[in-house]
Structures are given as C-alpha cells and as structure tokens.
Write the structure tokens for this entry.
Amino acid sequence: MFQSFLKQHDAAAWQRTVEALLPHIHDVDRRATQIWFHFFPLELADAINEAADLAQLVLTLRLEGNFRLSEQIDSSHWFLYGHRYWRQVKAAVVARAESNAAPPSLELGRVIRDIAKGIDADDSMLVGICAVGVMTLQQVGLEAFRASSAAVRPPQGMLAKTPAQSVAARNKSDSQGILGMFRGIRAQYTVTFDERRHDARFTVINQQHLTTASANDRRDYSNELRGTVEGPIPAQCRTASCGTCWVGILGGNEHLSPVDAHEKKRMKEFGYILSDEPRPVIRLACQALASGNVTVVIPPWNGFIGKRKGSRETSAVPPQ
C-alpha cells in the first residue's frame, strides 16, 4: 500500500515536498538534502527503469560514473550529517513500507516527518535523511532497499563534530594572517571536497575557478568510474561544455561568483538544476570563481539527462 502511495508522486510532487520540508531540517543538512535530490533525481531513475536498452540510454545521455542509486543505497548520502542514523531510518522506512495500514496522511511531507518522529533522535537531524530514505525506496523498490546491508561507518573528520561546529566550519574562511593585506587578489583559501577526511582539501587563489585550483592538486585521483582526472574535481573542457565538473555546494556558496547566463543555460541542458537563484546549491566548478573557503560534494556521475524528453520543461529538483 505504501509503495502504491509513493508511485502517485512524480518529480514535481517531490519537488514540492522537499521545498516544504526544508524549514524542518537542521542547518547542517538543509543544503545537503537538496544536493542529494539533485544528485539522484527521480527523472533519471525513471529513465533507467523504463529503458528497453540501458546501454543505448547510457550512450544517448552520455552517462559516466556510478549513476545507479541501486548500487549505492547505503552510501549515496554519506555527506548528510543524518547519515549516522541510516540504520534506524532504513528500518523505519521498511516497517512503513511493509505495513498494510493506510498512510497517516495523503501529504508526503507529513508522512516523512511522521517517520522521523518515530526514531529516537532530534527530528531536525532526521527529516532530511528520512526524505532520502523514502525517495530511495521509491527508486529502487522494497526488495532491493530491504536487502542492502545498511552498514554505516562511524562519523569521521568534520562529520564527527557537533552540528553547530560543522556549520561554523563551512561558514569560516581562512585568515590571511599578518601578510594578508599585501596579498590582495592573491589571497588563498581552502576548498574542502570530503568532510570525512582531513586531507581532502586544496588551495584556491582569490578569484580563481574551482577547476583550475583543483587541477593544481597533483595527488592521484584516478579511479575506475571516472578515469584519470586532474585533481579531485573531474573536468574535461573547462568551458561548461562537458558537464563533468558539476558539484554540490555544502558551504561557502556566498564566496562563489553568481551564476551567469552561460552557466545557467548549460546547467539546464545537462539537467542538473533549474534555478533562478544567483548562487544555487549546484554549480559547474569551471564557471565558479572563489573568494573564500568553499565546501563541495562531488557527485559519482555526470551526463546529459536534460536530453531526455520533457526534462527541459519539468525538473526533478527542488527550487533554490
């Protein structure tokens, strides 16, 4: 019964639901929740599930990396502070899905908040991850959702701090010290790309594009899914033509240059986000100039999901 209820909710319904839930989500996970829904849009899952020839769909949409949520049920949301509650959240979502009782409300947001209230933790820390859990169930189905291990590593790095400490760290920029006044436009800041690791950061010079700064990180970031890349942020063109450098902005979005018409147009064509915000939660790193510390999340895939029929008129992502 619960899964039938979920099937009544398309991308637009989820868009409204996430927007309505945002005030109930703690600051530490508000942007993270939005980012997750951009990284794993229902529209992409529908395209995969409906594809008669998945290999052809991959070619058509130029999908690269791990775009299958079914293969990362328990790890896709690692960057949410609420990830630590995943085992409890997953059990609560499964219990709701297995129940024959009608949903307590026909409003999806209220259902998600009701699931959060049944878990022994601060509701504001649970609403975001519960929304992720319910959307994951809708995309992968109960059998796959229930069968995954629900294994969660203990919080590490900045994610092991308190919520307030995590928020403060994202909003703080590096002090330029006594020589800062002489550096001028050469001021240097830090870009963090994995809050679990203390070494997952690189330096960006004031008014430098994120991809340019990333490429100066000479450590080996090659992997099986994304191939050989320069630096941690994948980039192939640096002209907003390939879409590989899209990132979620967890913190420091006010330290990035506003979206210009070119970036906005390309983001719509890629299908990553539709937003009129000057500094939305999803950016093309090759177009974003930094003037302070920034915390980003790098998605596990990229592609041109905006090419799918109808995706330019309806977006599976919440407005910013």
